[in-house]
Amino acid sequence: MTDAPLLSIKGASKRFGAVTALEDVSLEVGGGEFFALLGPSGCGKTTLMRLVAGFETLDSGRVEIAGADMSGAPPHRRPVNLMFQSYALFPHLSVFENIAFGLRRQGAGKTEIAARVAELLQIVRLEGVETRRPDQLSGGQRQRVALARALAPRPRLLLLDEPLGALDRQLREETQFQIKEIQRRLKTSFVVVTHDQDEALVMADRIAVMRAGRIEQIGAPAEVYERPATRFVASFIGQMNFLEGHMESGAFVGPFGRLPAGDDGLEDGAKAVLAIRPERLAIAPASEAAEGLRGVIEDVAFRGETTHFRLRLSGGETLRVSRGADGGRSFSIGDAARVSFPPSAARLFASE
Amino acid sequence: MNAARLARLGALVAGFVFLYGPIVILATMSFNASRLVTVWGGFSTKWYAALFHDEQMLRAAQISLAAAALSALIATINGLLAALALARFGAFRTRALFAGSIYAPLVMPEVVLGLGLLLVFVAFGVERGFLTLVLAHASFTMCFATVMIHAALKGCDRTLEEAAMDLGATPVRAFALVTLPLIAPSVVSAYLLAFIISLDDLVIASFATGPGATTLPMRIYSQVRLGVSPEVNAISTLLLGFVAAALGLSALITRGRAEGGGAG
Amino acid sequence: MPESGKRRKLTRGEMLVIAAPYAWIALFFLAPFALIVKISLSQPAQTRPPYEPVLDLANGVAGLFEKLSQFGLGAYRGLAEDNLYLDSYLSSLTIAGVATLICLIVAYPFALAIARAPRRLRPILIGFAVAPFWTSFLIRVYAWIALLKDEGLINHALMALGLIDAPLPMFATSGAVVVGIVYSYLPFMLLPLYAAIEGQDASLREAAADLGATPLQVFLHVTLPLSRRGIVAGALLVFIPAVGEFVIPDLLGGSDTLMIGRTLWNDFFANRDWPAASAAAVALLALLLFPILLYERAQLREDAR
């Protein structure tokens, strides 16, 4: 194989009138990789995907697929297929013809098409509906037909625009794993666009978190979760507590007191924000713990596998704390408690 | 990408030239001092002046306007009731016959409608004249009025009326106080539409009317059969202007409603 | 969802509402058809009205039997035997068919261009495209005389450009009638086509392109088949009235341009043969029955939504 990544985007910028959709975006997706573009609506992730598919043109920068420059290449000449958020199934064609559409455009023979369609229906576990029209299918079935149709022409890269967005919750979780499994089996590169962090964390090998047309961080799910590069990433993915304060001789100082801090490149006296995940906080009754931030339990929410507490610190800030089911002693509202955490569990960001 | 856009622009320009070219040429000719279409004899309004001295033409115009005003009124009232039945009564017995009879005149050849109406008048022994003209036009334009009002009623939020009834209004009052004001612009548009169609009709009028009530299109037709004439160009231009004004008015009313709806 | 099959009785209040339009339809739409059929079965006569009634009980039962023996398909036999009628039917169908096809070919790119214009402009463009429909039909047909005549504008322009030496005989031909029909009925074709194209989800075209379809293939495999309903509706809306058209063949056609609407008109006004005219009307309706039923079904389906 060549050294060139399958998909390479370099310095991509795009404006719609006065709105900046993408600003100097660069990323690479390798062969066989499951990549996720994650961000709130309007962050530019859909524009980026449409650029790759060929439905938008860049103002500046370039898109390369397998080393070949794609500028000027219309959608039908790109080795990329897109699974549309609305599925965009052809209402006048049967399931079979929908899946065969791309194969026919490639000039495939009759037997080849029949075999490929059957294979794909088996892959997405949807045999026996070949003759039906899209409007005779359930939402989940339509989603699979859309996936099969996009996979049929054997694209080098499959783009999935909010693939689970139209499904109900239970079906969504099930389908996440199925898509992941299909991707592993086919070894095709997948790029999924989603606003749902769970989807990205569960399915992707790597995630690019986007905000306002820029990429904030690219990394593996665990990396993005554990070591968010920016305050936005920290707040967008998972639950996060933020404490305002400033730096003072290598320590983070807030109204609640001093916390030792690692080396985060922040200067003395700089305003800073400390981010800590609820599950990384250890909570103990105030009477039993000598160390940690002291506060009063304001709310207790039992959620089955975890229990969540809201703790008001003496300085007035609130912290969310979550604890596994076997976390020991229970608390009631009004109890005094202390929370502590290892310095390595917290991240420090400069105040914005 | 750009070639496609250029092709679409070309289609637009060609389409509008085809649609408006003949009309614009006709209107221009009405101001031509020369009788010949191919010779521009200078700007003149003399054909318009001649028109206003053509007693027969003026009389025909009067009859056409009166017949249009009356028949459109009847058609709108009938159309409102029919649209109400179609929009609100659900699947009642004979609905298919009723709806079919309402929509059929939209595509029925006019010669057939005209002949049929004439036969009814003869069968009932009604002397043909202004009255039969109005009756015929009211029947013929009713389908257009129904379609228009029906569309407005279908777009109307039924729960508003239900809310009024819940607050103690009788069904009739609820309709009159809530729905009718909402669809009023469409009712006015339906009236204008029926009026314009009646004003324009030649075929049905020819069957339905009598010697005493010759309409404007009939008068124009008898002159047109003799060939192109500047007087006909002039009256045609006046009619085109009249319809353009009515259309503009209708568009203004509809837009006013759209904006009012947006604000409310 | 329309509840199918269930037909309910009208309440008293509803009957009050529907009574007037229903009576009107019965009197001025259904009765005329019954009369047309009835008179088409009677004999022509030099009386006023110029037909012999089929059933008239004034002469008693004997008279009734006498009439019944005369009860005739004479007018229809006339239709079948007279070449004029047969020719008019065939020629009506041909002219209307050709005009409908040309109308479709002219209207489709126009409708497509409007449907793909910036969203904000679309209602304005379609409004202007349909506006001529509201202006006088007679006047719009008349406007073409000045263009098509031997000494008309088109010939004048072509000769001035040196493209032709002698005027092309365009006026008073079947071709002129076709042009007149295409021009007059273009809005009928345009509106359903526009609605069918404009309503298409743009992502379907993108999906097709994404799956490797060239722009032409996208049109052939997605846009065109998805606008089928609009094509059918538009074709019916043009074809049906065009078959029975009177004004256009009368003003733009030659004396040899036969169309059934014109023949009916002449039977009625010139020949005063009411049974023949009625028989022509019945035959015309029979001819159009299938397309009209198709159209009605589409309307009722639309209506039920």
Describe the overall structure.
The complex is a heterotrimer of chains A (352), B (264) and C (305). Chain A has 352 residues and is an alpha+beta fold. Chain A is built from 8 helices and 20 strands. Chain A has helices at 45-53, 95-105, 110-123, 139-151, 169-186, 197-203, 221-226, 231-236; strands at residues 7-16, 19-29, 34-38, 60-65, 68-69, 80-83, 157-161, 189-194, 206-211, 214-219, 241-248, 251-254, 257-260, 271-276, 282-285, 293-302, 306-313, 318-324, 336-340, 347-350. In chain A, strands 6-7-8-3-9-10 form a 6-stranded mixed beta sheet, with helices on both faces. A 5-stranded antiparallel beta sheet of chain A has the order 13-12-11-14-20. Chain A has a 5-stranded antiparallel beta sheet with strand order 15-19-16-17-18, with no helix packed on it. In chain A, α2 packs across α3 (110-123) and α2 (95-105) runs parallel beside α4. The longest helix of chain A is centred in the middle third of the chain and has 18 residues, at 169-186. Chain B is mainly alpha-helical. Chain B has a single domain (54-263), classed as Orthogonal Bundle (MetI-like fold). Chain C has helices at 12-40, 60-70, 74-81, 83-115, 122-130, 137-148, 153-160, 174-198, 202-210, 215-226, 228-243, 247-252, 260-270, 274-304. Chain C is globular. The N and C termini of chain C lie close together (7 Å). Chain C has a single domain (89-304), classed as MetI-like (MetI-like fold, Orthogonal Bundle). Chain C has 14 helices and no strands. Chain C has 305 residues and is an all-alpha fold. Chains in contact: A-C, B-C. Chains B and C meet through α1, α3, α4, α5 and α6 of B and α1, α4, α5, α6 and α11 of C.
Our count of helices of chain A gives 8
- Rg estimate of chain A, integer Å: 25 Å
CATH architecture of chain C, please? Answer: Orthogonal Bundle
Cα distance spanning the termini of chain C: 7 Å
How much is the radius of gyration of chain C in Å?
25 Å
Shape of chain A: elongated
Q: Could you name the ranges of chain A where pLDDT drops below 50 across 5 or more consecutive residues? A: none
- What count of domains describes the coordinates of chain A? 2
Order of helices and strands of chain A: EEEHEEEHHHEHEHEEHHEEEEEEEEEE
Can you count the beta strands of chain C? Answer: 0
By CATH's scheme, which homologous superfamily of the largest domain in chain A applies?
Answer: P-loop containing nucleotide triphosphate hydrolases
Biggest protein-protein interface? B-C, 90 and 91 residues
CATH class annotation of the largest domain in chain A: Alpha Beta
